[in-house]
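To the team - zinc ion complex, inputs and output below.
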Amino acid sequence: MGRRTRMRFVKRTPNNFYFSETVPSEDISIILTVSEFEAMRLKHYVNLNQKDAAEKMGVSQPTFSRILENSHTKITQALIEGKTIIVSGGNINYKRGFIGYGCLECNSEWEDESASKDQKIFCLKCNSERVYYLVKEPL
Ligand SMILES: [Zn+2]
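Output:
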């Protein structure tokens, strides 16, 4: 029986996420899992230390370290061998931040996927116009 992979958290998908019904040939591509992509992003782009990055992904530090090491190996291989890097799959769970509004009058908060700073909104509860745009980052 295979080892069970724990759920990992990522904040967002890559901008150039690759979708395909047919998996491209391994001769010309390297498959980077979304977890590996996220580990690279947290460590080398957001510049978190491994402890904080592991926490964000919901994995232990040794696990994070292993994921990061895998992605280094794959990306190095892609660079050396001139292969395409494809980000795909893996055992992941997308974390969503809270996007919506809050009310200064009655302190209620509500989610609204299409919320924006520039919109004129009235409180759903007390109908006050003292409403602010509210975004909460996961973790
Ligand atoms: Zn209100």
